[in-house]
Amino acid sequence: MGRPPSRDKETQELIRRFQSRRARRRRLNVAFACLGGAAVVVVVVAAVLLLSGDAGNRAFSGSSTDTPGEPTTTLEERVMTTLPPSTSDSSLNAVPSITASSVTSTLPPTTTSQPPPTTTTSQSPPTTAPRAAGKIVVLDPGHQAKGDFNTEPVGPGSTEKKPKVSSGTAGVVTGTPESVLVLAVALKLRDSLASHGIQVVMTRTTQDVNISNIERAQLANEAGADLFVRIHADGSDNSAINGIHTLYPASIKGWTDDIAAASKQAAELIQKELIAATGARDRGLDARSDMTGFNWSDVPTVLPEIGFMTNPDEDRLLANGAYQNKIVQGLTRAILSFLGVG
Fold first, then answer.
1. Domains and CATH numbers, the chain
2. Which terminus of the chain faces fewer neighbouring Cβ atoms within 10 Å, N or C?
3. What is the DSSP letter of 160?
4. What are the strands, taking DSSP E only, across the chain?
């Protein structure tokens, strides 16, 4: 049985509408496909442009001139910061062409990092310091403000006795007491030796003390001194006598026989360097067996007599700071040499 005419017309109309919608979908799909392809092309082209621009930026800006810690911007970003914000696609047509000179003006000035200047010191630290570590020198500025004429044994177990501390001599011109002069020299010598890394022990640093010769030697023994230096100046009834001489202990069995040889070695060095430093008359060495400070010492010991205060010319020299410095320089060189650190 055939379909009614009205139904046939309705069916045909539905088919036509379906076919029309399907055709529109196909056209839309083609259009979307075209748009998608174009978008891909645009993205690819943009990426290529970005990459080529970044490479050009690197080539243009040179190597490693960015400041550490600052964000790196591309050439395009630097250029775009100079352009006004875009309001429409057509506004790009108004942008003038960018030349190398115009790009250069937008970039920060290129600076080449330089290494910091090398700092040099005008003086090297004393080379004796490491070798002088642990070395001990005891300095004994002779005498004191007032002598102590009480007596003490000249050596361990001796029946012979001498005053504990004599008053010393004085400058015939300057009137300076020996105890004042030798203290000034000893303090300078202390600083000089300390600058070379020597540990220095002073028997006194002021005038107002009362320390006997036995006590001074015992201070050196207790300190474990590598050298005990007793600094004195000389005097004579004959004002013409001048010059420097150095005393050391004679070898006495049971007293100084264990330190005599080393003491003589130190005395030889001190006499040599003092004469070289000052140009004073060389009066040589003198081995002594009658000195309390020597006989009670268990460590090498010497006693430089740095000049005659009873000689007018030498008294004036000994009062001069520059001459005192020469004495200190000579003593320092000799002591460092004796200790094996010079």
1. 7-60+74-79 (no CATH), 129-339 (3.40.630.40)
2. N
3. -
4. 136-141, 148-153, 161-165, 199-202, 227-234, 244-249, 282-288, 301-308
